[in-house]
Amino acid sequence: MCGITGWFSRDPIPSDSHASLVTMVEAIAHRGPDGHATRLLEHAALGHARLAIIDLAGGNQPMSTPDNSATIVFNGEIYNYRELRQSLIARGVEFRTHSDTEVILYIYMTEGLHGFTKLRGMYAFALWDERRQVGILARDPLGIKPLFVSESPTGTFEFASEAKAILAGNERRAEIDTGALHLLMNFRYLPDERTMFKGITQVPAGIVIEWRTDGTVTRHVIRSAQYDEHHDTLSALRESVRAHLTSDVEVGAYLSGGIDSAAVVALANAENGMKLSTFTLAIGDDPDEARNASRTAELLGNTNIQSLQSDRLGNELADIIWNLEVPKINALQVRQLAKLARRHVKVVLSGLGGDELFFGYNAHKILHLANNAYRWMPRVLCKKIGGMGVSALRTMSNVRWSEPERAMVMLGLLGNWPRVYGVLRNLWDTPALRTWIYGPRMLDIPHPDAFETLEELWPRQQDPVAAMAEFEWRHKMVNDLLWHEDRLSMAEGLEVRVPFVDAQLAHHVGQFDRRTLMPHGRLKGYLRGVLRSILPEEILARPKSGFQVNAPEFYHQHLRGWEDPFLSEDYIRHTGLFNPAFVRSILRYEVHKRTRWHYFMLYLILGTHLWVELFEKRAWPQPS
User: Fold this and answer.
1) Which of 7, 222, 238, 412 could hold 158 in an S-S bridge, CB 3.0 to 4.6 Å?
2) What does the pLDDT read at residue 1?
3) In the prediction, which pLDDT does 170 show?
4) How many CB atoms lie within 10 A of CB 373?
5) pLDDT of residue 423
6) What is the pTM of this model?
7) d(CA 618, CA 430)
């Protein structure tokens, strides 16, 4: 796991460009504390910051073939690199290292772009082919590792693991993309290829970009590999965990009170021949979560190291937004957990992705029940009752867009599943709410309709619950959960691996329909049955919990120090993005769970103002 950056250039790169490349690497130095290196070629500049996990002595980058016909910088891990290496040796390839990086080089040299279908793992890499005068950028099919690009008018094509490195290279000032901000205020993450920065986009998951010196850019899709067929799901999961243990350093694991992380730990114990150290953060709105994690570790025979929520957690907000590059706050706990684990290990396994793959969210249950209701309630009746309910609630409560109101809106939309899902997942985009929430800088510019954006991305599935799962696997998991996990673990020099987010495992699970995976509407009903042979019933019988915080209470306990000046009326009016009356109305609401949506909006507003300070103004804000 590392950080990569650099650019491809139409014109020959002057030697004095080395300083710019070094600056780009320094911007992502936190991603690779074990070494930094650069290389200038005639048409390519490649920079690397290394976190050494495999072949500690021989895996330094940038790495070239002996004849310098190809050079690569690589971020990630290839879990099947040993098997691929042996097959290449059998074909006459002579290796100089034992690294997975060199395997990628020779896969490309012998098979071209098609060879990337054989890579099992998480990756983003840049490769310069001197023979063909072509630059290659590739991102893994599940989008686990990030890759950002920007094309400049001067004929350079810049890339980096984080957007800040692109900004650092040409010393250009960041400018917020207000259309992206509007979608973030709805989705709470950035769907598709967007970033917060004008002129910088993501390489989509599973895409290879081929850049030529005449400036032409071609996109290729990394096609599905021929996967090994597993007779049962437990074997497929066990094999994924085995692959994700590939490492030359100690591996630990995150542990919650749930079944996903418990399954990963139980299988890793069996495969590893020793008990992994596990790490838990005592935070969230369920006081039993950390206690359950400790009990799980006891039942499985693992050490469990826990950390309490820091009283100064909110003071890290600016640093977190700097690393995330999006104005989000609900990732504070991810950073603290990474800090805890990094004091002990360099690599951890996580249960992330289990809910997406095996239908584990309460939202799956709600949409399942909504679909059942729609079967016996005529749509016209749903619309009428929903509309009447909304009108009644607006006259009875001073809290606009409350949870009961949103439930009535969902009822009125039954059958229009993208919009039902959108309201369930907090989308709110209406002209009236835009006017209430936004300031002139947002209102004076047309923005994409969040619900229409969702409809464009919505899968063509008859079953709305299956469509939701597919959508979240492709978008929310990639641009929300994996985004958090990568940025905030790499900020600490920690590699997080996700055995549930594995193409071969997903291929196996994909043969089952939703009703098999969620029998009679039971969340993870199928997975619980699969895990009965490796987990005690005490773990399997626990209700779902998590690390969600009480948003209003958390704000008043940890974030009030940022109010002056970043939520003051003067600051809001000067920045122009939001309506100060909206902020005042939220702060007048009772501190109660029913105002979670409103406080999350306040979080996003505060985070956006800190983003403006950090990236547009290049200042480092401090709480009062």
Assistant:
1) 7
2) 65
3) 77
4) 12
5) 98
6) 0.95
7) 33
Q: At what angle do helices 362-376 and 417-424 cross, to 10 degrees?
A: 140
Q: Which two tokens stand for residue 183?
A: 């979608």
**Would strands 495-497 and 347-349 be described as parallel, antiparallel, or unpaired?**
parallel
- Please report the pLDDT score of residue 225 as a whole number: 74
420: left (phi over 0), alpha (psi -120 to 50) or beta: alpha
Provide the token pair at 243: 């692959």
55-67 burial code (b ≥16 CB/10 A, e <16):
beeebbbbbbbee
User: How many whole angstroms separate alpha carbon 290 and alpha carbon 194?
Assistant: 35
Q: Quote the CA–CA distance of 406 and 423 in Å, as a whole number.
A: 7
Residue/partner pairs of 617-622 with CB below 8 Å, 24 or more apart? 618/173, 620/318, 621/318, 621/562, 621/566, 622/318
Give phi and psi for 409, each to the nearest 5: -60, -45
Buried b (16+ CB within 10 A) or exposed e, 195-207: bbbebbbbbbbbb
Residue 133 Cα to chain centre, angstroms: 33
Task: Write the CA distances from 606 to 177, 298, 528, integer angstroms.
Answer: 17, 41, 40
Residues 11, 152 contacting (CB under 8 angstroms): no
pLDDT of res. 58: 83
Q: How many CB atoms lie within 10 A of CB 621?
A: 17
Do the bridges between strand 63-64 and strand 36-40 make them parallel or antiparallel, or are there none, so unpaired?
unpaired
Residues 13, 154 contacting (CB under 8 angstroms): no
Where is 495: in which H helix or E strand? strand 495-497
Task: Give the DSSP H/E element, type plus range, for residue 527.
Answer: helix 525-530
d(CA 404, CA 397) in angstroms, rounded, equals 10
List b or e across 432-460, with b for residues whose CB sees 16 or more CB atoms inside 10 angstroms: ebbeebbbeebbeeebbebbebbeeebee
228: left (phi over 0), alpha (psi -120 to 50) or beta: beta
- What pLDDT is attached to residue 539? 97
3-state helix vs strand vs coil in the chain, percent to 5: 50, 15, 35
In the predicted model, residues of the chain with pLDDT beneath 70 are: 1, 284-285, 546-548
Cα–Cα distances (Å) from 15 to 41, 46, 170, in that order, read 9, 13, 15
| Identity of the residue numbered 346 | K
The three-state secondary structure class of 502 is coil
pLDDT at 169: 85
User: Cα angle vertex 345, ends 341, 347, to 5°?
Assistant: 90
Q: Are 138 and 124 in contact (CB under 8 A)?
A: yes
Tokens standing for residue 255: 């542990």
Contact 549, 283 (CB under 8 A): yes
| β-strand pairing of 121-129 with 63-64 | unpaired
Cα 535 from Cα 296, distance rounded (Å): 9
pLDDT of residue 333: 85
Distance CA 287, CA 548 (A): 11
Q: Give per-residue pLDDT as tens, 130-166.
A: 999 999 999 999 999 999 999 987 889 999 999 999 9
Question: How far is 513 from 536, CA to CA, in rounded Å?
Answer: 27
Type of residue found at 358: F
Exposure string over 22-32, b if 16+ CB within 10 A, otherwise e: bbbbebbebbb
DSSP string, 339-396: HHHHTT-SEEE--TTHHHHHT-SHHHHHHHHHHHHHHHS-HHHHHHHHHHHHHHHHHH
